[in-house]
Design brief:
Blueprint lengths: L3 E6 L6 H14 L3 E6 L14 H12 L5 E3 L12 H8 L6 E6 H5 L7 H7 L1 E5 L11 H9 L5 E2 L11 E3 L9 H9 L10 H10 L7
Helix pairs in contact: 2-8, 3-5
Length: 215
């Protein structure tokens, strides 16, 4: 299977920001595939306004259709209870050298609240992507504390197409200022979702009357 990155999230809904980020990381690390993994029950997010898991998975499938490097997985949807990342990583059963986990910089700073963060870091290569415009200091006290607790070897910045062999990978990929909560509010008000989500996703939201889209 080669180099595989796991991109987890609620994808409520998936939008162009997710897709652009995944494509840039794929290019930076010369990944063979990016697996989009919608969480059935995100343990770190409130379930308010959360579309049914099958609908979120269906939207991901529509959004990535036609890209052979992108794949949608229902692994977490088929497992009962909260979607813990360590369980997903172990179920994927790939060597650490070939398994990457994409997370935002805010998520990295919150990683110690996750289930078994040290095992997560031992099971895959962490890829941290700071949000454009956010203040993330990889040498700051908060980042150093997380790095120390997970047994990391420090941050490394890759050349495009050449993932480093060691360390937590820091990729400054482009991120679009698109908010899923704003998309849900726009849907409820029946406002345009164009240029924010793929047309197939916008049609799905309207057809299924998701997020309060009027019937």
């Amino acid at each position: 299977m080669g180099r595989t990155a796991l991109f987890g999230g609620s994808f409520n809904p998936i939008h162009y920001g997710h897709l652009l980020l995944a494509d840039e990381v794929r290019e930076h690390l010369a990944l063979d595939r990016v697996v989009f993994m919608p969480a059935a029950v995100p343990p770190h997010k409130p379930v308010t306004d959360l579309a049914p898991a099958p609908d979120r998975h269906a939207m991901v499938q529509r959004a990535i259709a036609g890209n052979p490097a992108f794949e949608a997985s229902d692994l977490e949807l088929c497992r009962p209870g909260p979607s813990y990342t360590i369980d997903t990583l172990e179920a994927m059963a790939l060597p650490r050298a070939e398994l990457f986990l994409l997370i935002g910089s805010e998520t990295f700073l919150d990683l110690l609240s996750w289930r078994e963060p040290r095992r997560i870091a031992a099971r895959c290569r962490l890829v941290v992507v700071p949000r454009t415009g956010s203040v993330f200091d990889p040498e700051g006290a908060a980042a150093r504390k997380v790095m120390r607790e997970i047994g990391g070897e420090g941050f490394v910045t890759p050349e495009i197409g050449a993932p480093p062999a060691h360390g937590v990978i820091l990729v400054r990929a482009t991120s679009l200022p698109i908010s899923a909560s704003d998309l849900r509010a726009r849907a409820a008000a029946r406002r345009s979702l164009a240029y924010r989500v793929p047309p197939s996703v916008a049609r799905y939201i309207s057809d299924r009357h998701l997020y309060g889209w009027p019937g």
